[in-house]
Write a structure and sequence with these properties.
There is one protein chain. By secondary structure, the protein is of the alpha+beta class. It has one domain. It is built from 4 helices and 2 strands.
Length: 98
């Protein structure tokens, strides 16, 4: 889910649970059945257009990196450890969609 979707879900969790549940990783796993993972990755950018080389640049950085034509995507991953708690989470909080 996106960070914005996670913040929406987190606000709903804060209304129902004690602060110790959503502030402690171990308690979150015990009570809600998941741990939170902040994930960033580079994925291919569908709108990328390779620019022609420019002689005025001394060392074009864009041609040096493996990231050429890619964009940084930030997502929040929930790693569930219990299927029943995952089902309850989806019933209570949805999947982050409003």
């Amino acid at each position: 889910m996106t960070p914005a979707q996670w913040h929406s879900v987190l606000e709903r969790i804060k209304q129902r649970e004690k602060p110790s549940v959503y502030l402690s990783r171990e308690k979150m796993k015990e009570v809600l059945g998941f741990t939170l993972r902040d994930h960033r990755e580079y994925v291919k950018d569908p709108d990328y257009v390779k620019r022609p080389p420019d002689d005025s640049e001394w060392y074009p950085i864009i041609e040096l990196g493996w990231y050429e034509g890619k964009m940084n995507v930030h997502t929040i991953r929930l790693d569930f450890y219990d299927d029943q708690k995952r089902t309850m989470f989806l019933l209570k909080y949805g999947n982050g969609q409003d």
